[in-house]
Design a protein that fits this description.
Layout lengths: L22 H9 L2 H20 L3 H34 L3 H22 L1 H15 L3 H7 L1 H21 L6 H6 L1
């Protein structure tokens, strides 16, 4: 039997993968993006904390956990500001606007509690680590940590509002 040409085994070398772009091209593209710098700064916080400030394992893990929670809070707050603005213009009476002031933050807390469930589940296996260290004392008494966590939160809020979800149409927002 003869093999058909498309089924014939040919001993040809595999094609070479394309060459990687040079390092300077990566650096130039990185330097041109503002969000890349913010992401680098946010990810360097635990590295600087461990090597320069002597952070413990528990504090480093807590920093990563807090970073995720702060990002979630910023994203939901940005969404709430959009919802509040559109609802405010539709509310005609003072009673309707007062209702918005009361119900929207309560709704935000409920949504944060539900959407944040993965963050709460992560705390379960970490509970022993946090209890067996002086993490609570560090967090309560070290003002540099407060500044660090405040800066991380501010960066998340800046990034959430900079992306412009607030001003996008619903269709563009869903695409993004």
């Amino acid at each position: 039997r003869r093999l058909l040409p498309d089924r014939a085994v040919v001993n040809k070398p595999a094609p070479k993968p394309p060459a990687l772009p040079p390092l300077w091209q990566h650096l130039r593209e990185f330097a041109a993006r503002r969000d890349a710098w913010l992401s680098l700064a946010r990810n360097l916080v635990p590295v600087v904390g461990v090597y320069a400030l002597g952070w413990s394992v528990a504090l480093t893990i807590f920093t990563y956990w807090f970073d995720g929670v702060a990002a979630l809070v910023a994203f939901l707050a940005e969404g709430m500001s959009r919802d509040m603005r559109t609802s405010w213009s539709r509310a005609r009476s003072k009673v309707g606007r007062l209702g918005l002031i009361v119900t929207r933050p309560l709704s935000w807390i409920l949504v944060f509690g539900i959407v944040g469930v993965p963050y709460w589940f992560v705390l379960i296996p970490l509970q022993e680590l946090f209890e067996n260290t002086d993490l609570g004392a560090q967090l309560m008494h070290d003002h540099a940590l407060w500044l660090t966590f405040g800066t991380m939160t501010a960066m998340h809020f800046s990034q959430a509002f900079h992306v412009g979800y607030d001003n996008m149409t619903e269709a563009d927002r869903e695409k993004r």
